[in-house]
Design goal:
Helix content: 40-55%
Order of helices and strands: HHEEEHHEHEEHHEEHEE
Low-confidence stretches: 243-257, 302-307
Distance between the termini: 55 Å
Structural class: alpha+beta
Number of helices: 8
Shape: elongated
């Protein structure tokens, strides 16, 4: 609108608004004597007098003015241009709708992935079990003619089959890590740890020390249980790895030394989370190799020395980070390893 509109009746100054409902409102206010307000009302007209018709949005109030006889003699209009605010909100709503659509698509994709992983794991494990059974039957049928070397090869074959089954289970576990959403519950970490340790079918001769006064959390049980289970299993395996010898020890023995294994589980309270630690007194990890241990299928020892799939620590990292925590290790060769992770006090 330009200065040439000043002093003109609004209907003449902005005739383009005639068909947009704005001029019926003053008549209503004149007749009723009641104020009328509009919020984010759309208007299309030439804002700057340059001949360009633009869309805009307005908050406005039509306030009747009364004379001494309480008759409406005029209307005061207060209007505020809120186009920028409306545009911003519309953009946020558009982005929110896009995000909602992406979330739904991701959920559908995850369901399909879970279904595929489940079917694939069962489909792959079935022939593996058949191979293991066949090798056992062959060994029984040929018991009289098999050499000790052949029996060892059969045993090795079954070991590789079981390792393959472990890999399939590990991949399935990794694909679901971080996406499992269980119900929140009040959880005693002390009790969880005791039950987790009981899940380990065969414990070697190892001392497991749980720091007293472990906290109680409001959290999901299964993911936290999975993190502790993987870290304690890792400590049990690598706590049994022989320690490297010093030069003097090597002169006295051709075999690496072993010592009593010990695992300590500790906790330290922070502002919004707890910092847990699972420490072993095993062979330790050379600092330059530590970043590699979090990768899926990454192992620092030969498979024949320490059994495992190389997936456990990757599952731990993914599970913890998907819940806003972090995980790291402190270790040096011959000094054992301490794995740390943080867990929110309440999710």
């Amino acid at each position: 609108m330009g200065e040439d509109c000043i002093g003109q009746p609004v209907r003449e100054a902005l005739p383009v608004l005639n068909q947009q409902g704005f001029y019926e409102l003053p008549d209503r206010v004149y007749e009723s004597g009641e104020a009328y307000g509009g919020r984010e009302e759309r208007a299309v007209f030439d804002h700057n007098g340059g001949g360009k018709i633009e869309e805009s949005f307005w908050n406005y109030v039509y306030q009747p003015l009364f004379d001494a006889n309480h008759q409406v003699y005029g209307i005061m209009v207060h209007a505020v241009n809120v186009t920028d605010q409306v545009r911003s909100r519309q953009e946020v709503e558009r982005k929110a709708e896009e995000l909602l659509q992406l979330t739904r698509a991701l959920e559908a994709s995850n369901r399909e992935l879970d279904q595929f992983a489940y079917i694939a794991s069962h489909g792959l494990k079935a022939p593996l079990r058949a191979i293991a059974n066949l090798s056992t039957w062959l060994e029984e049928d040929l018991e009289d003619v098999l050499t000790n070397d052949a029996r060892q090869q059969m045993k090795l074959l079954r070991g590789r089959v079981h390792r393959m089954e472990g890999l399939i289970d590990g991949i399935l576990q990794y694909s679901r890590a971080g996406r499992f959403k269980g119900k929140l519950e009040r959880l005693s970490v002390q009790q969880l740890l005791q039950e987790t340790i009981e899940l380990l079918s065969s414990l070697p001769e190892v001392q497991i020390i749980i720091q007293p006064e472990m906290p109680t959390l409001i959290t999901e049980r299964v993911p936290l249980e999975q993190v502790f289970l993987n870290l304690i299993s890792n400590a049990l395996k690598y706590g049994q790895v022989p320690h490297p010898k010093t030069g003097e020890e090597l002169q006295q023995s051709k075999h690496p030394s072993k010592h009593p294994s010990k695992i300590e589980i500790r906790v330290r309270e922070q502002d919004h989370f707890y910092e847990f630690a699972v420490a072993d007194n095993g062979a330790g990890i050379v600092p330059e190799y530590q970043p590699k241990i979090w990768g899926i299928f990454q192992r620092l020892e030969a498979r024949d020395q320490v059994e495992g799939t190389g997936i456990g620590l990757a599952v731990v990292q993914k599970t913890v980070e998907m819940r806003g925590g972090r995980v790291w290790v402190e270790s040096d060769i011959g000094q054992g390893a301490t794995f740390y992770f943080t867990w929110m006090k309440a999710h």
